[in-house]
Write a structure and sequence with these properties.
The complex is a heterotrimer of chains A (172), B (977) and C (116). By secondary structure, chain A is α+β, with helices and mostly antiparallel strands. Helices cover 24% and strands 36% of the residues of chain A. In chain A, the strands form two sheets. In chain A, strands 1-7-10-9-8 form a five-stranded antiparallel sheet, with helices on one face. In chain A, strands 3-4-5-2-6 form a five-stranded antiparallel sheet, with helices on one face. In chain A, a hairpin with a 2-residue loop joins strand 9 and strand 10. In chain A, helix 1 (23-34) runs antiparallel to helix 2 (69-79) and helix 3 (104-111) packs across helix 4 (152-162). With 977 residues, chain B is of the alpha+beta class. Chain B has five domains: 1-161, Ubiquitin-like (UB roll) (Roll); 166-288 and 417-471, FAD/NAD(P)-binding domain; 489-553, BFD-like [2Fe-2S]-binding domain (Arc Repressor Mutant, subunit A); 586-832, Gyrase A, domain 2; 833-976, Probable tRNA modification gtpase trme, domain 1 (Gyrase A, domain 2, 2-Layer Sandwich), CATH 3.30.1360.120. In chain B, 22% of the residues lie in helices and 28% in strands. In chain B, a hairpin with an 8-residue loop joins strand 39 and strand 40. The N and C termini of chain B lie far apart (92 Å). The model of chain B has no long low-confidence stretch (mean pLDDT 93). Chain C has one domain: Folate-binding superfamily (Folate-binding fold, 2-Layer Sandwich). The radius of gyration of chain C is 15 Å and the shape is globular. The longest helix of chain C has 10 residues, at 90-99. In chain C, the strands form two sheets. A four-stranded antiparallel sheet of chain C has the order 3-4-5-6, with helices on one face. A two-stranded antiparallel sheet of chain C has the order 1-2. Chain C contains three helices and six strands, in the order βββαβββαα. The relative contact order of chain C is 0.19. Classes of the chains: A alpha+beta (172), B alpha+beta (977), C alpha+beta (116).
Chain lengths: 172, 977, 116
């Protein structure tokens, strides 16, 4: 029996803060409060523990250990005081999966119409996986996929189905 | 069937491995093939030439071709859930243990009783089906329809669930080359040199197309060299067993890869549908040989010359022992040479051309074979198998000049480029008079997103039949031959098949032309020429040439029918792929989903959500459970999982102004800490959603939407913010799934919540009706809204989704002695109807305005504008005769049917009774122990006490009285506890 | 199935990642608008065979609405641009005219072409 294309593991214990603001005005202040570099369009920056992703022209997503969230939220609130901005703890509404292994890219290619060759090493792609919205970015040995909490079971199922042993995309 | 010599040749067969014998079963017989065989080559090797029955006349048929164009040799394959009809014998690899069943015959292939249709052929002309419609109606109903229904359809659909897996995958490339023959591989090499990602797709398990067969070892070597080169390149992907089935807009190419077809033991997906985005597609799809139209050209043993050659060279199988070749071109002489090399007898080569010179005909003559020029076949002898042919002059009327005994006729009517892919998305063709073929017109290609050609053709697919370069020998020109002989009589024309699968003959197309069918598209439908799996592969050019002849017009004027995808059939399983069973569609689950499931919830789908409809206990049906739940809420306390309600935060200096536009009511004046019911309309003025709005802080509002409305309403808000009022400072966030929400309702709701402990003052003074408070409950951060959809004292508690289950379980532990009862959506629906509250989707249907529903109070008169305000001023919207909301009281104690219409006096233009209203919600109220209903009635609110009649489908009429829609607690005292 | 490039995030998205939104550059008619003007706003659409301006949302992406200039017959895309654009930018009209020299905007779209 061939091995699975990639390991699919649910990731718990992550905190997430949705940040909506005018990034031209407040971007640097947000980045500073988050302790990370401001990501370029459709990119994600990180320091191994935290990541700051560009979600849309006026939206960033800070991903960090859940325990750090209250402090980070307070820091962001302070940094954005007086600015027109919206901060929301969105940790509970997300489901996160790490898809890792030699053929992790095959798993993504079965579910999303994304051209992975056009996804830079620090790219953050928002797309769909089969029938649900997801965002994903590269890890050292695969991808981190974030979807919604309510469809976590579905997302887990389609990721595992796509990783079925023996179903690599390489020509045979 | 008896035969004197083995059909498997003693040597040859470049694709097979004789060392591995594979057993299989065909109509119950145990047979053997070898590794590398297709079903067709294995059957031929066993002497089985008859492989099917034609669709209409049930004539015995053998294989015509050796590839995807095969019209006759279609089988039912596999057993149980893996049974598949219409599997093409020529492209299906033999797998050990395969079970084949012949189709379209009864009781057996050899003795098919329906073959009587063949004798009835004169009674079943072109357009037979359509003509049956015209004749007396009784004949259609009692004679034709049952007959047609019984005989319709090739094969039978499997009844069981397909146990195999299928998947899809996306790919992106600068160039996709379809076809791994010499032209395709050369094009791929040239493109790879230029850089960019190149994918090459080949439908067969082997590379090279016709070159290895047509050009022998030199051809094989040329292909091997190209493959070596391409395999060494990083930017080239070579994929075999992958059939490009269709080209669509903007370079979207679908292709089906066979991974484990007919071999379920591998445990991998059986097929994979590739969804490819190609910068450009090169069709290197080769060409298909055309049959010749001579009398009885459908007798088993009459095959395309190229197919005969393929079976000999690729599989080491002789379709017969004594061959005769009939042709209008030089290429077919290759078949003669291959047959001679294989040691088979060659009766003669019959060539329709006046002269046959050049290296290929000369090589055949040198081997001592008769080459008879200027001649054709007058007819084929034999019925179940070719026994010989009668020969005539091609230019004559069929007067027989001689004859030959033979058991196979290898025919070639020339070649047609496979233009399907080029044509699927709008590419146009041009008629090549010299080669008598349609080929892609490079000036009218299919266009891509950049307005440039997104597909082109190369090699034989482009009309370049001599694309093997140095390997080619000189060939003389092809003579167009559409009917053999040229002046054949009517009797012969009625036996000349054009479309073998659908039994369309030369006479049928000529009849269609006589009956006025001048358009090739109409003729196709009338005669069924090129329908079903053929899609113009074998029959197209011959058919339209005959039509052109009958209409006395040149072929390009007739044109071709449209080439539509898929080129070869795709299974539904491949199209659905993983989207079946649990993965059929995403089910949305609330944080308390597992609890509901463990407590016996009966589910109701609401959008993609699953919500508990009710929680039936042992011995209870759903109705009893709903009644119990309602009485528990009204009598003590119940909990509803309201997590699915949309929760959209709207924040910013212009948020109030924005919400005043989005809602019909005034939201900017809502005090901090208060809730207000709001309704939203679209620009047409129709209600689209409703819910409670909460002002969280000076610049932040929380908007609740309906369960189905969260994404839609969030999108609606963003649309207006981004596209109309983009200078307004407002941000929105759809936080629906961040929170679990529980409605705690009933006279004991306050008591129950108090027991949880926390820092929120839940007293009526601190948290009055329509108030909001934030803090912690049971140690969980919570927002508490005192709002009520049941009419009872009610609190909606929102906590982070990750702690929703904890809150729910704490409520049930703390309220056990109060009889706290989980209630579902149906109890909620009934209780809101008892209170006369509307439900989006019940009282609204996309044409209801708030004024229809007595919601005028929720529209601000002070505001200069809101979305829908202009529409509400239209004359039809202000018309007092609109159907408006009322309560309906059944007069006989029965529940009115939901959706029933109240009839009026008189009839409409169609003779139907006029209507004056309809039932929008109808339930048995356990609280009141009688039926209640709401409905929309013309002038309704002004007609209190009047009776309406609701005719039922049974013919019976139910009566109901118009009453106030608030059936329970009209004063609203209970919401205050 | 179309592909369009989102002008906000640069993603070349396929149709399944997008939500269509009908004709672009409509002018809202609110309270006080005449019946005729309101009817046109709600219902009257160009529906041309040829050059068309339309709204798309990068729904499975950055969530932003953008506008696209496209030929409805050949599906050629002349360009995409941000929704906060009252009339097509010069580079879009230039791209259209380069490909369709005979093209002129529909009569009731005259107000935005005058801005050139």
């Amino acid at each position: 029996m061939a091995e699975t294309l990639a390991q699919v593991a649910r990731v718990d214990g992550l905190g997430m803060i949705q940040i909506r603001a005018d990034l031209d005005c407040a971007g640097e202040a947000i980045a500073e409060a988050a302790g990370l570099a401001l990501p370029d369009v459709a990119r994600i920056t990180g320091d191994g523990s935290r990541s700051l992703g560009w979600m849309s022209p006026d939206e960033l997503l800070l991903v960090l250990p859940a325990a750090d969230l209250p402090e980070a939220l307070a820091a962001l609130e302070q940094a954005l005081a007086g600015e027109h901005a919206l901060l929301a703890d969105v940790s509970d509404m997300r489901a996160v999966f790490d898809v890792t292994g030699r053929h992790a890219a095959d798993v993504i290619a079965k579910l999303s119409p994304t051209d992975l060759a056009a996804l830079p090493p620090d790219g953050l792609r928002r797309s769909r996986a089969a029938q649900v919205a997801v965002g994903f970015w590269r890890l050292a040995d695969g991808f981190r996929v974030i979807g919604f909490r309510s469809t976590a079971d579905y997302l887990a199922l389609i990721l595992k189905n796509a990783a079925l042993p023996g179903s690599t995309l390489a020509p045979r | 069937m008896t035969h004197t010599r083995p059909f498997r040749l003693p040597k040859g067969g470049r694709l097979i491995d004789r060392a591995w014998q594979l057993p299989f079963r065909f109509d119950g017989r145990h047979l053997r093939g070898v590794t590398g065989d297709t079903l067709a080559s294995a059957l031929l090797a066993n002497g089985q030439m008859m492989m099917g029955r034609s669709f209409k006349y049930h004539r015995p048929r053998g294989p015509l071709a050796s590839g995807a164009e095969e019209p006759n040799a279609l089988f039912g394959l596999g057993q149980g859930g893996r049974f598949e009809p219409n599997q093409r014998a020529t492209t299906t690899p033999l797998v050990p243990g395969m079970v084949l069943r012949s189709q379209n015959c009864w009781p057996s292939l050899d003795a098919d009783l329906m073959s009587v249709n063949s004798w009835l052929a004169p009674l079943l002309p072109a357009g037979f089906y359509y003509k049956t419609f015209i004749h007396p109606r009784a004949a259609w109903k009692h004679l034709f329809e049952p007959l047609i229904r019984r005989s319709a359809g090739l094969g039978r659909a499997p009844a069981e669930r397909d146990p195999d897996r299928y998947e899809q995958a996306y790919a992106h490339a600068d160039l996709v080359v379809v076809g791994g023959g010499i032209a395709g591989l050369q094009a791929a090499r040239a493109a790879a040199d230029r850089g960019g990602r190149v994918i090459v797709l080949e439908q067969n398990p082997h590379w090279g197309g016709r070159t290895p067969v047509d050009h022998g070892p030199e051809g094989e070597a040329a292909i091997a060299a190209l493959l070596d080169d391409l395999r060494g390149r990083d930017n080239v992907t070579l994929r075999r067993n992958t059939m490009a089935t269709g080209l669509y807009d903007h370079g979207y190419l679908l292709a089906r890869e066979s991974l484990a077809d007919h071999d379920p033991n591998q445990g991998i997906p059986r097929q994979r549908l590739w969804r490819i985005r190609a910068g450009h597609v090169i069709a290197a799809t080769g060409a298909l040989e055309r049959p010749l139209a001579f009398a009885c050209n459908d007798v088993p043993g009459v095959m395309l010359a190229s197919a005969v050659r393929d079976f000999i060279v690729d599989y080491g199988v002789a379709p017969g022992q004594r061959l005769l070749v009939v042709t209008n071109n030089d290429d077919a002489y290759r078949t003669a040479l291959v047959a001679l090399d294989a040691g088979l007898d060659l009766a003669a080569v019959i060539d329709a051309r006046p002269h046959a010179t050049g290296p290929l005909p000369d090589a055949v003559r040198e081997r001592g074979v008769d080459v008879v020029t200027g001649s054709g076949i007058a007819r084929v002898r034999g019925s179940r198998h070719v026994e010989g042919v009668a020969i005539c002059r091609q230019s004559g009327d069929g007067h027989v000049t001689g004859g030959y005994d033979c058991d196979v006729v290898a025919m070639s009517g020339g070649w047609s480029p496979v233009v399907h892919l080029f044509s699927h998305c709008g590419g146009k063709l041009t008629w090549d008079e010299g080669q008598a073929m349609f080929r892609p017109d490079p000036d009218r290609p299919p266009l891509g997103a950049d307005g440039q050609a997104m597909a082109s053709a190369t090699g034989a697919a482009n009309g370049d039949l001599r694309c093997a370069g140095d390997l080619e020998r000189d060939e003389g020109p092809t003579l167009p031959v559409w009917v053999m002989p040229q002046n054949a009589g009517a009797k012969a024309r009625a036996k000349m098949w054009l479309d073998f699968q659908n039994d369309v003959k030369v006479s049928d197309v000529e009849l269609a032309a006589r009956e006025g069918y001048a358009s090739v598209e109409h003729t196709k439908r009338y005669t069924t020429l090129g329908m079903a799996t053929d899609q113009g592969k074998v029959s197209n050019i011959n058919g339209l040439a005959i039509l052109s002849g009958a209409l006395n017009q040149p072929i390009p004027q007739t044109g071709t029918t449209t080439f539509r995808p898929p080129y070869a059939p795709l299974t539904l399983a491949t199209i659905a792929a993983d989207a079946r069973g649990e993965a059929f569609q995403p089910l949305r689950k609330t944080p308390m989903h597992g609890w509901h499931d463990r407590h016996g919830a009966s589910w109701e789908p609401v959008g993609h959500w699953r919500r508990p409809y009710c929680y039936p206990r042992a011995g209870e049906d759903r109705h009893a459970a709903v009644n119990r739940e309602i009485l528990a809420v009204r009598g003590s306390v119940g909990t509803l999982d309201a997590s699915t309600l949309g929760k959209i935060v709207v924040k910013g200096p212009d948020a109030g102004r924005f919400l005043d536009m989005i809602y019909t009511g005034m939201m900017s004046t809502l005090p901090v800490g208060k809730c207000r019911y709001g309704i939203m309309c679209n620009e047409n003025g129709f209600l689209i959603d409703d819910g409670v709005v909460v002002r969280l802080s000076q610049d932040t509002w929380l908007c609740h939407t309906t369960t189905g409305g969260a994404e839609r309403i969030h999108g609606h808000m963003e649309d207006w913010l981004q596209c109309e009022w983009w200078d307004w400072k407002v941000f929105t966030a759809n936080l629906t799934e961040q929170f679990a929400q529980v409605a705690v309702a009933g006279p004991k709701a306050h008591t129950l919540l108090e027991r949880l402990g926390g820092d929120i003052d839940l007293s009526p003074e601190a948290l009055p009706f329509m108030g909001f408070a934030e803090g912690q409950l049971a140690g969980i951060p919570a927002r508490v809204f005192r709002i009520s959809f049941s009419g009872e004292l009610s609190f909606e508690v929102a906590v982070p989704a990750g702690r929703g289950l904890e809150l729910w379980e704490r409520l049930h532990e703390a309220g056990r002695d109060l009889g706290v009862t989980p209630y579902g959506t149906e109890a909620m629906h009934v209780m809101r109807a008892e209170k006369g509250f509307i439900m989006i989707g019940d009282e609204t249907d996309g044409t209801a305005i708030p004024q229809d529903l007595g919601l005028g109070w929720a529209i601000s008169r002070k505001k200069p504008d809101y979305i829908g305000k202009r529409a509400h001023a239209r004359s039809h919207m202000t018309d007092g005769a609109r159907w408006r909301l009322v309560g309906l009281e059944s007069l006989d104690g029965r529940v009115l049917p939901d959706g029933a219409y109240a009839v009026d006096q008189g009839v409409n233009a169609n003779g139907q009774k006029k209507t004056q209203g309809r039932v929008t919600s109808s339930y048995h109220s356990p609280t009141l122990d009688r039926p209640i209903a709401m409905g929309l009635v013309r002038h309704g609110p002004e007609r209190m006490g009047q009776e309406l009649e609701f005719p039922l489908p049974s013919g019976e009429v139910m009566k109901a009285r118009i009453v106030d829609p608030v059936f329970y607690d009209k004063e609203g005292a209970r919401a205050n506890g | 199935m179309l592909t369009l490039t989102c002008p906000y995030c640069g993603v070349k998205a396929e149709e399944t990642e997008l939500q269509p939104g009908g004709e672009a550059h409509l002018k809202r008619v609110g309270p006080g608008g005449s019946d005729q003007a309101f009817e046109d706003y709600l219902f009257a659409r160009q529906n041309p065979k040829g050059v068309h301006f339309e709204r798309w949302r990068h729904a499975y992406g950055c969530g932003k609405w953008f506008l696209a200039a496209r030929d409805t017959a050949t599906l050629q895309v002349f360009g995409t641009y941000r929704a906060q654009t009252p009339h097509p930018p010069d580079e879009i009209t230039a791209a259209i005219k380069a490909a369709r020299p005979d093209w002129t905007p529909a009569p009731n779209a005259a107000d935005w072409t005058q801005a050139e």
